[in-house]
Amino acid sequence: MTAETIWSSIAETLRAEIAQGVRAPGARLPTEAQLSKRFGVNRHTVRRALAHLSQEGLLHSRRGVGVFVASRPAEYALGPKVRFHRNISAAGRFPKRHTTLIETRNPTEAEAEALKISTSGRVIATEGISLSDGVPIALFASAFPEDRLPGLADALSELSSVTEALARAGVPDYTRRTTRITAVTADPAQAALLQISAGTALILGVSLSVDPAGRPVEFGTSHFVGERVTLTLDHA
Amino acid sequence: MTAETIWSSIAETLRAEIAQGVRAPGARLPTEAQLSKRFGVNRHTVRRALAHLSQEGLLHSRRGVGVFVASRPAEYALGPKVRFHRNISAAGRFPKRHTTLIETRNPTEAEAEALKISTSGRVIATEGISLSDGVPIALFASAFPEDRLPGLADALSELSSVTEALARAGVPDYTRRTTRITAVTADPAQAALLQISAGTALILGVSLSVDPAGRPVEFGTSHFVGERVTLTLDHA
Question: N or C end of chain A: which has fewer CB within 10 A?
Answer without folding.
Answer: N
